[in-house]
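User: Before I run my own analysis I want an independent prediction to cross-check against. Here's the chain; please return only the structure tokens and, at the end, one sentence I can use as a sanity check.
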Amino acid sequence: MKAKQVDFSKGSVTRNIMRVAAPMLVAQLLNLMYNIVDRIYIGRIPGEGLLALGGIGLCFPFITLITAFTNLYGAGGAPLCSIERGRGNQEEAEKIMNTSFCLLVITGVALTILGSIFCRPILILFGASDTSLPYALPYMRIYLLGTVFSMVALGMNPFINSQGFANVGMTTVFLGAVTNIVLDPIFIFVFQFGVQGAALATLCSQMLSAVFVMRFLTGSRAELRLNWKKPSLHKKYAAEIIGLGSASFVMQCTNSLVQIAGNQMLGTFGGDIYISTMTIINSVRQILDTPVLAIADGASPVMSYNYGAGKYDNVKKAIWVVTLLAIIYTAVVWVLILLFPEMFIGIFNKDASLLTVAVPALHIYFFAFIFQALQYSGQTVFKSLNKKKQAIFFSLLRKVVIVVPLTFLLPYVGNLGANGVFAAEPISNFLGGSACFVTMLLMVFPELSSKKKN
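Assistant: Structure tokens:
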């Protein structure tokens, strides 16, 4: 495989963003397959697919927590690495990458041990019933075995992208996703392992992705090398990585908190079918989020590199490019959801009773999706330019301050019931997204203009 590198210091800003975003889009779509394909196949298990789907949904908060720690070190380290590369400090960039690797492995081992010990009470806390626990528990126990592999693969991949090797980052995910797609039907239906088969397929795919990432970052083609034989954890950089990565960490942790709150309230006001509906809506959300996340992630190393290199006009251009593309995309998605909700729900299950509940829920949940573009744009800028406080604040604002309280409150307002849980999301998109974007404009653009004059 030829590792073609994108040089962020040359060429059009828009072109550089798209050259990184395009393979990252493919990579993220493939990465989505790790869990989405599981849910598609699980939802089609004869006689128990709908109930099994709800059981798997109860595992999401802990899986999201694993992703949160992955982003803490990956999304926290990669922008710092890009900034140092822009400044020409290759040795410092390499130290940051090696520190992130150590943090990922240490945390992965800890989560595996703790999760395995407390798996059952955790799932019960998340809202598992006697009927859903037999599906959730075996899936989670097998999934946990791949925690370290998952964290290394997804956490170190941003460091490949930050060096301009977006095609290699795409291949990393491609290998794992194809493995998962091939093994899922074999383990679930041929060997009749059920939900355990889905988890086992995911475990195998995560291992393959992790091996590929390690092989590239320790090989001769990488600009920055990973020294896995003598791992080095630099306290100075660890603090900076955690500080910047806290924004992504908080965002994922609050997603987990929202999932727990939502499952509890849906269980109270609707029962297992509403929990299955939320599982499907979250899955649709993951699918539809992927392109706009790829655009944001493609812009991030371009912003960070040019910020470190002092090319502030390029940073401004990158901000407007990512904002415009995100608004156009989310507007199109909003219209498609309004016109063809059954199409999105039917990807996972076409049960008539499910459609009756899920169609109006999907309409409510995605009502203000276009405002999510403003959140993505603002958060990407704050993260890329090492604005830790602002990135963390707006992650907390949208989820903890707005969504979680509304999830508990709205079901009691005007007899909304379970629909109140789904309504919390569009309200948070409008309020949180608008506040984040406006603050970014008022804070970042004057700073970039001031630095340019100096």
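Sanity check: The chain has a mean pLDDT of 86.
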